[in-house]
């Protein structure tokens, strides 16, 4: 490590730092993006107007001629191995080198890490990566690009994990022109989605939730629902905050049967019977017990 320049001015800290181990974690689920509303007060009362004026003054940027410290970085980060990227079934080890340049308040990391080894686990099925790279181009949120291949029967399935580490996109393609839900069914079970059992459909939906992380699953779940002939197929949040899969189907015009399976092994089955327009029966059985009730409903 070296320090050059006046300490009271803008010294430059340089040198090489060797990293023994580092981890980049991909979150299991993402919160929805919130757009802030532009709220305007029309003819506020005098007291409210004074409060708003104080608030605007508090957030008005002040003069920012120079940074608080003035320290400039010119560092090289050397990590030949044991840089791990993990989360959402992804588990990889990389090695590489980056540079940190610029003032500490706006440092720019630039460089790349190449994959040493890696895999993607989807509900017990493993696919090994053939290549991978993590690139930093000035942001602390790196770009990732991984590719993996697996052979299922007569088709070769390719999985690509790309995008920002904070919000990666996972896409499946195959040597045959197949939709995403069909490719995932072939990868997990080695057979077409139309041949899956109800339990396999639930596992397939869990895989969609794992890969999509809450943000991309709606379209694919809809395709699975249509392909399997279910009346209801949804990814929901259970009472403990985990991911659960809900499936349901009308056995007849007045009988509906549904099953909800959670990630912790909890299963709950319900059956609804419309006896008349206003009289309904509901039965429920699961790992926490069972219940039966008759309900009278009338709209006024």
TrEMBL record:
Ion transport: is it a keyword of this entry?
A: no
Q: Where is the Translocation and assembly module TamB C-terminal domain?
A: 2-300
Q: Name one Pfam family in it.
A: TamB
> Topology with regard to the membrane?
Single-pass membrane protein
Cellular localization per UniProt: Membrane
Q: What is its main location?
A: membrane
Instruction: List cellular component terms (GO).
Output: plasma membrane; TAM protein secretion complex
Q: Which UniProt keywords apply?
A: Membrane, Transmembrane, Transmembrane helix
Provide a GO biological process annotation: protein secretion
Q: What is this protein called?
A: Translocation/assembly module TamB domain-containing protein
Q: Organism source for this protein?
A: Methyloraptor flagellatus
């Amino acid at each position: 490590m070296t320090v050059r320049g006046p300490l009271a001015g803008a010294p430059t800290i340089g040198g090489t730092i060797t990293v023994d181990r580092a981890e980049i974690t991909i979150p299991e689920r993402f919160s929805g993006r919130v757009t802030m509303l532009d709220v305007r007060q029309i003819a506020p009362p005098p007291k409210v107007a004074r409060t708003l004026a104080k608030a605007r003054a508090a957030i008005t940027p002040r003069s920012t001629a120079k940074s608080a410290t003035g320290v400039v970085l010119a560092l090289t980060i050397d990590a030949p191995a044991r840089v791990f990227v993990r989360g959402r079934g992804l588990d990889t080890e990389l090695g590489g080198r980056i540079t940190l340049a610029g003032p500490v308040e706006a440092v720019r990391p630039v460089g790349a890490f190449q994959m040493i080894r890696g895999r993607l686990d989807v509900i017990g099925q493993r696919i090994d990566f053939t290549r991978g790279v993590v690139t930093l181009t000035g942001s602390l949120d790196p770009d990732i690009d991984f590719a993996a291949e697996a052979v299922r029967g007569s088709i070769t399935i390719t999985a690509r994990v790309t995008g920002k580490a904070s919000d990666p996109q996972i896409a499946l393609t195959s040597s045959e022109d197949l939709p995403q839900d069909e490719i995932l069914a072939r990868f997990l079970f080695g057979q077409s989605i139309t041949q899956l059992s109800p339990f396999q459909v639930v596992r397939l939906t869990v895989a969609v939730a794992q890969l999509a992380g809450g943000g991309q699953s709606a379209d694919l779940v809809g395709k699975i629902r249509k392909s399997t002939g279910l009346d209801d197929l949804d990814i929901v949040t259970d009472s403990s905050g985990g991911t659960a899969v809900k499936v349901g189907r009308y056995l007849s015009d007045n009988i509906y049967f549904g099953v909800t399976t959670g990630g912790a092994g909890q299963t709950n089955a319900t059956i609804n019977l419309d006896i008349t327009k206003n009289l309904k029966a509901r039965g429920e059985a699961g790992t926490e017990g069972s219940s039966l009730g008759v309900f009278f409903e009338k709209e006024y």
